[in-house]
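ERR on first pass: missing label on line 2. Operator R.T. fixed the label and resubmitted. Corrected input:
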Amino acid sequence: MSYERCDDMRWKKFLLILVLVAITVWSMAGIDFSIKEIVSGMGEVIRFITVDMIPPDISSLFDLMQPLLDTIYMSLVAVVVAAVISFVLAYLASSITTPHPILQIAARGVASILRTIPDMVWVLLLVPAYGLGTLAGTMALLIAGVGLLTRSFAEALDEVDKGQLEAVKATGASWLQTMSRAVLPQFLPQFVSWSLFGLDTNVRSSTMIGMVGAGGLGFAIQSGIKLFQFEEVTMAILMTVVLFIGIEMITTKLRRRII
Amino acid sequence: MSEIVKADGIAQPILTVSALKKTYKDGTVALRGVDFTVKAGEIVGIIGSSGAGKSTLMRCINRLIEPSDGYVYFDGIDVTKSNKHQLRYVRRQMGMIFQSFNLIARSTVLGNVLNGRLGYMDSVRGALGIFSKQDIEDAMSILERVGLVNQAHKRADELSGGQQQRVGIARALAQKPKLILADEPIASLDPVTSENIMDYIYRICKEDGITCLINLHQVEFAKRYADRIIGIRAGRRVFEGRAQDLAQDVVQEIYA
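pass 2 clean. output:
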C-alpha cells in the first residue's frame, strides 16, 4: 500500500469519527441529556427504590399468582398455535420445499410484515377488538410469533441436505411423501428448538405487552405503579425475574437434549 | 422378464437414450447429444473424468434433472414426456444408488429401506409412514441379503460408509427395480470396501436380472464388473464396447 493511500484512509477515519461525535452531541442537546440532570435525579431514584419499593409485599404473592399463570398461559398458547401456523407457512416459504414460487413470495411477504410490526403495536391494534386482557395479548404474541418462527423455520428448511431429498424423490415418492420422509426428519430438531426459543421470547414479551393492557404480570406491574402500591410492584418484578430464569433454564435444557 | 423378451427371443433394449442434451441455466453444457441403448439384464459401466457429464446423464434418465433436449425411453415409455403420474411410475422402477449414500441420517436403517416402497404407495399413507406388513417383511429380507439385518433399528448415520452404501443398495432393491442407476457408488469408499460394494451390486443385479447402469471413474472397476463400457468425455460418447476392446490409448482419450 502506498503512503498516499494510507494517508487517505487515515483522513477518512478521522472524518468518520468527527461526524459520529457531531451527531451524538446534537442528539444529546435534543433530549436535554446533561450530567447535571442525571445526577440530580439519581437521588430520587435511590430513594424511590430503597424507601418506596422495599420491602416487597410478600402477602401479594397470592394475588399475583393469577397474573403469573396468565403470563405463562398466554406465552404457551401463543407459541403452540404460532408453531403450527409457521410450520405450514415455512414449507411454502423455503426455496427447497415450496410447491410454487408465487406461494414462496407470498409466504415470505406475510412473515416479514408480521415480523416488522412490534408485538406492542399489535396489542394496541387488537385491544379495540378483543378488549383489555389476555386474549388481545395472546393474539399479539401469536401474530409476532408467526413472523419470527416462519422465518426461522424457513431458514432451517433451506439448509436441508439436498442429497437426502434427491434420494427419496428418486424412489418415485410424491411431493407430500418427500416432505414427510426426507425433509421432516432433518427439520424436526430445529422445529422444536426454535419453538422453545419462541416460548422464551413470549414470556419476556408478555410482560412488556402486559403493560399496554394485555394482562398478566406486566399488567399487574403497570396498575400497581398507577395505584402507588410500590411494594406490590416489587413483588411482581421479583416474580417476573424468577419466571424468566425458570423458563430459560427449562427451555435451554430441553433444547440441549434435542440437539 | 416376459415383457422385456419379445417373441423372437432377442432381448429388447430396456433403456434407449437418444440425442440427450443438457445445458444448465448458467450456460454450462453438460451433455452434447448422447445416444446409447441398454439391453435388459446388462450391466453397463459409464466411465469418464469428473465433470464429463456422467452424473447429469444419470439424473436425466430419471429426471432428477430435466434434460434440455433428446429422448429417454424406458421399457416402452418416453420418460422425457412423462407427466407427474407417469414419472412416479417410471422412477419407482429405477432404483438409484448415490456416491454419498444419501440416507436419511436421522431415520433408522429399516426406515430408509422402506422409503424404497414410497413410489408404490398412496401418497398420504406413505407420508405418514404406514407401511404394510408385507413391505416390512420384504425390507427385512433385503437387509438380510446385504448382511445388515442386525442393524435394522439403528440410526442410519451410526453406520460405517460401506454399511451405509449397503443400506443404499437395499433401498434401491426395495423398489423391486427393473433398472438400477448407480452414480459413483464407490467414490467415497476405501478400496477394500469398494470391492465389497461392487460385488454386492454385481451379484444382486445378475441374480435378480436387474439391468444396471454404473457411473465409475476407476477404469479397472468398470473393466472387471461391466458387461459393456461407455466412455463419456465433455458431454459426448467417445467409446462404446466390451471391456477387452477398451485399449489403453482409448482410455487415455476418454480421460484426456
